[in-house]
Amino acid sequence: MDPEIDALDAYSRVVSTVAATLLPSVASLTVRSRRGEGAGSAVVYTSDGFTLTSAHVVAGADGGVAEFTNGVETRFDVVGADPLSDLAVLRIREPGGPPATLGNADDLRIGQLVVAVGNPLGLAGSVTAGVVSALGRSLPVRDGRHLRLVDDVIQTDAALNPGNSGGALSDSASRVVGINTAVAGIGLGLAVPINNTTRVILSELMSTGHVRRAWLGVAGATVPLPQPLAARLGQSKALRLAEVVPGSPAGEAGLYVGDVVLSAGGKPITGVQDVLKLMLGPAIGARLPITVLRKGALVDVVAVPAPLD
Q1: Of 90-94, 119-123, 176-180, 253-257, which range is least confident?
Q2: Predicted TM-score (pTM) of this structure
Q3: Angle, vertex CA 184, rays to CA 181 and CA 185, nearest 5
Q4: pLDDT of residue 33
Q5: What is the end-to-end Cα distance of the chain in Å, rounded?
Q6: Enzyme catalytic residues
């Protein structure tokens, strides 16, 4: 047997298995709002009908119609949407398809095979395949006057087109590791990762319909650490504070401009985005241990993040 043919057969088997597993779980959405009619995709992820899509797909709408590849057509309600992560949770009114299994995008590697399942250009039940082109990209999103970067966005060369947004990006084991959210250019697609951070967001959307965020009150920039300290800590960069808002949780905790934040909550801090990852609902009112480098000495403080209005 030709090894090249063997490899192609193995590739085809993986893609066809993912397609057979996930296509029944992916719906085509029709959404009507004051902005007009729109379309997208969504993924059922619980047995009682909770469904995941992109926030921009359902922006301005409180419901719509979901259609599955088995012919089931049902209304859905928007449970909650979070524009700052571009994720939304829906609830379908009638059983449409089996729940997909959510994976962990933190386990992805560059070059790994991924499969996109969605409904591009109104073509229901479409499957494309490619590889993880890059990891750790950032996607700018806006909610009113708030601008935020969605971190650790997955870049893939699997073909994505309008209508794919909200659909599934799967690994070779048919686990949903991302929600396709944007077409960045020819041959370039992006997906919001499914990981511990987004699982917290989904949990909050399911339970309350919105995402609570915490506030620390700092701004700064990434700086390199001195080599001996970098080797000791196992991290090469940290966050130097350029601003500490007076009266903020950071100010009350005793953080100062010029402090270099090394860790918070036991996790390394290399930039502002690392801080923002920690500022979700569970952080509100909880003790947050922070270690900083101040005038050559390591200093520990404890902050209590407040709700972000």
Answers
A1: 119-123
A2: 0.82
A3: 140
A4: 77
A5: 64
A6: 56, 86, 165
